[in-house]
Amino acid sequence: MPPRYDxxxxxxxxxxxxxxLLMIPMGFFMGDLPLTLKLNTYTLHKSIGLLVLALxxxxxxxxxxxxxxxxPDSMTRAxxxxxxxxxxxxxxxxxLMPLTGWLMVS
Length: 106
Prior knowledge:
Blueprint: H1 7-29, H2 35-65, H3 77-105
Helix pairs in contact: 1-2, 2-3
């Protein structure tokens, strides 16, 4: 059996992914809602964003302390570089998006 990510990394990955997928439609539609529902939705959106931010920092620390499985030996050096670059870019985006939302409401 090939090496896998540890259970904590898997849980963090899917929790953050599901929260982000929940926030996307909220972000698109909350501006068109009636005022009371809009305020509640904005509050929920901000709360989920802060949760994503906190979980992402925890996930980043976990990743640094628990290295992921090695990439397949069949990958070229360029493919490895692209895979690592894409992975770190996603980490940056997952952290920067909630930070920009926080900045916008501050």
